[in-house]
Design a protein that fits this description.
Blueprint lengths: L2 H10 L7 H35 L3 H29 L1 H19 L5 H29 L3 H32 L4 H4 L1 H15 L13 H24 L5 H21 L13 H31 L4 H26 L4 H19 L8 H28 L6 H34 L8 H9 L1 H11 L1 H40 L5
Helix pairs in contact: 2-5, 2-6, 2-8, 2-11, 3-4, 3-5, 3-9, 3-15, 4-5, 4-8, 5-6, 5-15, 6-12, 6-14, 9-10, 9-15, 11-14, 11-15, 11-18, 12-14, 13-14, 13-18, 15-18, 16-17, 17-18
Length: 510
């Protein structure tokens, strides 16, 4: 399908404005979006408590965060295609049921290994949730102006969830164990299971791609080795098996693309990527999320373990930035109607670059206010860029392929979440270890724990106590903040890349 054919199909679509039922359906569809974003932020803030309780290694600590988005990213294309074929609302309800059940199991995981396994299983059901929400919006809101606003609300819900996550999670963590952050899924998803059959219409592709087990296997064999390779490269360098894993993923990716191009009814229509606006918006989406998640990974630890804030107070410290993300995502809607995206997105991302530049000089407890201002600036850019890029992805795909297009968009989002933790988190971990100077006379067990993670160092310092414990705490905080400064500059470089891609690919049309 050519770009002209796609454009003609979009223009031929009925431009019917929805009434109260459509907006009520939007509210219902925001529940899983809110949950996923809350879950991501809460987990970052719960990580210190999990680290102190389950005592994971540095690799396990990264996997506790990454297992969910890694599996989810590998299955998003598959689940989006299944939703196109069997019904997007049906996939949404199945995913909600499974996600709530597994979240309850994760809340009581006794070991780091079982928690990682539960997070991976959550990824399976999460892959059913996210493409369904975005693709259903594409079919419910056929009027472009209404759809643009609905997608702005959809994107803002990620920010709203991130804003609520630290506050709600902080309250839970101060009164209950870390498992309570997973139990939140149950009261959020129960209303969805009740109201979705009443308010959300079923939709599917009238000519769906066939179920192709080989393509499903190839898609997972492409994404999982590549993301795992990036994790290994960030933590262990080129001496690890990362180059081999990356090569394996590229080979399977080539086989996947080749199979889709040869199929008369492909699982994923690769010709969507011939549209430069579609592909450029995907890259902006991915790199923006890398910048956001990478920031939250080290900000949550800095606020709690270096500054010494409680989880709830650390959450409140980030609220101004998350609120700025919500507001900018909504305010960019009328701006994007008048100014071309190739101008709007780079200008917005300039604020994010400024935010990362401020992070580089805002380390230490005495610069807490500067870190807050930095996140406000970062949030302005990310909120606006995410709204525009998601709307462009859906607007440049035919309505019948909404599920596949949404799955690709969500794959970029989840890959960005994995890369934000794996790349920026892995670099920060490596820099922390290289900068850490242990005080003399430290017991062997305490020294080993301190070299693993910042949380391990703080726990060891509490165990050692006295002047030696305070020396270890100060050394760990200094090493961590030194790594944050360098990591922030790398994050700024990634956001600059996103701005350049936006200026080159997103087109001149408003």
């Amino acid at each position: 399908m050519t770009t002209g054919t796609i454009t003609a199909a979009i223009r031929a679509e009925q431009q019917q404005r929805v009434g109260w039922r459509g907006w009520a359906a939007l509210v219902v569809l925001m529940l899983p979006v809110l949950l996923v974003s809350v879950d991501n932020t809460v987990l970052s803030f719960a990580l210190p408590a999990i680290a102190l309780d389950l005592e994971p290694s540095s690799a396990q600590q990264l996997w506790i965060i990454d297992a969910y988005p890694l599996v989810l990213a590998g299955l998003l294309v598959t689940m989006g295609t299944l939703g196109d074929r069997f019904g997007r609302r049906r996939m949404l309800l199945i995913g909600a049921t499974g996600f709530a059940a597994v979240s309850a199991l994760a809340a009581f995981a006794p070991t780091a290994e079982l928690l990682i396994a539960a997070r991976a299983l959550m990824g399976v059901f999460g892959a059913m949730l996210m493409p369904s929400t975005l693709s259903l919006l594409r079919t419910i809101f056929t009027d472009r102006d209404q759809r643009r606003f609905a997608i702005a609300v959809w994107a803002s819900m990620f920010s709203a969830g991130a804003a609520l996550g630290p506050i709600v999670g902080g309250i839970l963590l101060e009164h209950f164990g870390w498992g309570s952050v997973f139990l939140m899924a149950v009261p959020v998803l129960v209303p969805l299971l009740v109201l979705a059959p009443l308010l959300v219409p079923e939709s599917r592709d009238p000519k769906p791609g066939r179920i192709d087990p080989v393509s499903i296997a190839l898609s997972m064999a492409t994404l999982i080795p590549i993301v795992y390779a990036i994790k290994e490269l960030a933590v262990h360098g080129f001496a690890s098996i990362a180059p081999v894993l990356f090569l394996v993923g590229v080979v399977f990716g080539w086989l996947f693309v080749k199979r889709q191009l040869r199929s008369s009814t492909p699982m994923l229509d690769m010709r969507l990527f011939q549209n430069s606006t579609f592909s450029g918006a995907l890259m902006v989406n991915l790199l923006s999320v890398v910048g956001l998640v990478g920031f939250l990974f080290f900000a949550a630890q800095h606020l709690q373990l270096v500054v010494g804030l409680s989880p709830m107070n650390a959450g409140f410290a980030l609220v101004p930035g998350l609120a700025a993300m919500i507001v900018s995502g909504l305010l960019v809607v009328p701006i994007a109607k008048r100014i071309a995206p190739r101008i709007v997105v780079p200008v917005a991302l300039a604020f994010s670059v400024l935010g990362y530049a401020l992070v580089a000089i805002s380390t230490g407890p005495e610069t807490l206010w500067l870190l807050i201002v930095a996140f406000v600036s970062l949030g302005i850019g990310i909120g606006a860029a995410e709204t525009v890029s998601n709307e462009l992805i859906l607007a440049n795909a035919p309505p019948a392929k909404a599920g596949a297009a949404s799955a690709v968009s969500e794959t970029a989002y989840e890959l960005g979440a994995v890369l934000g933790t794996a790349v920026l988190g892995g670099i920060l971990t490596a820099l922390y270890r290289s900068n850490l100077v242990l005080p003399e006379g430290l017991p062997t067990a305490a020294a080993q724990a301190a070299t693993e993670t910042l949380a391990g160092a703080i726990h060891a310092a509490d165990g050692v106590g006295g002047a030696l414990g305070e020396s270890l705490r100060a050394a760990a905080a200094h090493a961590f903040d030194a790594g944050v400064g360098t990591t922030a500059l790398i994050g700024a470089g990634l956001v600059v890349c996103a701005a350049v891609i936006a200026a080159a690919t997103l087109g001149r049309r408003r």
